[in-house]
Design goal:
This protein is α/β, with parallel strands linked by helices and 180 residues long. The chain contains four helices and five strands, in the order αβααββββα. It has helices spanning 2-21, 62-74, 77-80, 158-177, and strands spanning 46-53, 83-85, 93-106, 114-126, 131-144.
Length: 180
């Protein structure tokens, strides 16, 4: 019985010595990286979103796209302190979005899905007229793996259109919010 206790004690000391003494040194903890530069939204509490579609195809409904962009801005309200509203309400600033073109093509290499290409121009302007942010003819490629690539009416499917508008709204707001 004493022998078993001694063997157990020696094994425990050996395990602790090997495990504790021969471990590599722990890396120094780095502070988190600084936050991404944000658009100066100082003084803004609200943004009115206005969308027009001047593309030849008119696949995206301006009201539905405005709603998707408004939703994306409002998802960041806790972080930015800025809320968004549709075009019926007055606000501290106006985000005007113009859909310039819309197109789609199947995934390359025969993979299932469609790549939607939406080109927009957008301007965020304070009610005093100061332009806070602008991009012109910006291309937004949006991949949709569940869209039927062989369908000639892929834009007519509500689930696909909603996916494209949601992704477009999120990307646009991300670019706007993270542009110094």
């Amino acid at each position: 019985m004493v022998e078993k206790k001694l063997i157990t004690l020696v094994c425990a000391i050996g395990i602790l010595a090997c495990g504790a003494c021969f471990l590599p040194t722990l890396p120094d903890r780095q502070p988190p990286p600084p936050p991404l530069p944000r658009l100066a939204l100082a003084g803004l509490q609200s943004i009115r979103v206005s969308v027009t579609n001047t593309s030849e195809s008119h696949h995206l409904d301006p009201n539905d796209l405005a709603l998707a962009v408004t939703k994306s801005i409002n998802e960041l309200t806790k972080e930015t302190g800025v809320s968004a509203y549709d075009q019926r309400y007055a606000a501290d600033a106006v985000l005007e979005i113009h859909v310039v073109s819309e197109s789609s093509k199947p995934f390359p290499s025969g993979n299932k899905g469609v790549i939607f290409q939406v080109t927009i121009s957008a301007t965020l302007t304070r009610k005093e007229g100061d332009v806070m942010w602008r991009e012109t003819n910006a291309a937004y490629p949006i991949a949709c793996s569940f869209a039927p690539a062989d369908s000639p009416n892929v834009w007519n499917e509500a689930s696909v259109r909603n996916w494209v508008m949601s992704a477009l709204g999120q990307r646009l707001v991300h670019r706007m919010a993270n542009t110094p």
